Amino acid sequence: MKIVQISTNTLPVPPEDYGGTQRDIHYLTEELVRRGHEVILFAKKGSKTNATRTYEYPTDDPDQQLDFIIKRIPSNVDIIHDHYGIVAKTNPPIPTLHNSHSKKAKGSQIPVFVSKKIRDKNKKGYFVHNGIRLRDYTFRTKKKGYLLFLGRIMKEKGVHLAIEVAQKTGKELIIAGTINKPAYQEYFDSEVKPHLNEKIRFIGPVGGTKKINLISRASCVLFTSTWNEPFGLVLIEALACGTPVLGFKAGAVPEVLKGLPQLLCNSTDDMVRKVKYRNKFPTARVCRSYVKKHFSDKVMADNFLKLYKKVITNKEYKIVRQSVWNTRKNLILKRS
User: Fold this and answer.
1) What is the CATH number of domain 2-132+297-335?
2) Bridge partners of 43?
């Protein structure tokens, strides 16, 4: 198949540190190419993949990016997989998926979400779970004694709840994450900073090898998010390293941890109990095997290929003759 992958212009593919969307695109692109498919990638400057052809956005202006894409997509493409959203909304004369990595995918014919939970809430489209490449995640059976929180430092992610768990269990807690908004800083100053000491430490954002080392050596990762998580990539990253991860029953967390229900928590006190009696945790090998079976890059690619073929074969995509795409393409042709 000839497949177009369209990334955002926020981070290169793959990202150096954080960047779940771009990492998903990287894993999917690499796996599709490995299987013999032709992949054309549109992405931010600095992207480095094995795509058959990579086009780097020459500008930060979305309108100019759209024209750049329209001008370069071959007419014989089988399907467009848009992770950005700017192409899907123009109704190209090519079957086009809009892969939403958050909660919404307005203005697109065929939205694809990262969990069934979010798909059902939108009452339209499909879902394909995120997948990761296991060899990128160091597997360790021997752990150190600390708990780990990894994510944005914001109230909805529940950093204060992770601190509460650490205080009630007497465990060391390492907090790693970004503070990139004034509201996050206010939350950090009032709810996190006053509790920092030798046992509860904030180390700022981490990525790459440092992030993997932290996860793989932790005794447990605390996923204390209380909002409607679209997926929760940290969940499968921890399990891939053989590290158990405890999460509240919010958003897609119960869906992701469906096969490991002992890791789901009803409350902070429930999480405290499970940290204290960690002998009931699944083994490191069970954690790793769970990701391999359900959330690997290979499984993700399998599911997307099935979806591509379904959309193309069933002809679900409606070609709109007077579409934004056609109008802009005609203008581009006139200018050239």
Assistant:
1) 3.40.50.2000
2) 56
- What is the crossing angle of helices 297-314 and 20-34, to 10°? 80
As a whole number of angstroms, the distance between CA 23 and CA 13 comes to 7
Q: Any idea what DSSP says for residue 154? A: S
In what helix (H) or strand (E) does residue 235 lie, and over which residues does it extend?
Answer: helix 233-240
Q: What is the CATH code for 134-294?
A: 3.40.50.2000
Q: Helix, strand or coil for residue 96?
A: strand
User: What residues form DSSP beta bridges with 42?
Assistant: 6, 55
| pLDDT tens, residue by residue, 193-250 | 999 999 999 999 998 899 999 999 999 999 999 998 999 999 999 999 999 999 999 9
Sequence-separated (6 or more) residues with CB below 8 Å from residue 247: 223, 224, 225, 232, 235, 253, 256, 257, 263, 264, 265
Residue 263's CB is within 10 A of a number of other CB atoms, namely 26
Read off the DSSP letter of residue 170: T
Please, where in the chain does CATH 3.40.50.2000 lie?
2-132+297-335, 134-294
User: Model confidence over 134-173: pLDDT tens digits?
Assistant: 999 999 999 999 999 999 999 999 999 999 999 999 999 9
pTM flag (> 0.85): yes
- Distance in angstroms (rounded) separating the CA atoms of residues 164 and 270: 12
β-partners of residue 149 are 175
- Other C-beta atoms closer than 10 Å to the C-beta of 15 total 20
| 19 pLDDT more than 80 | no
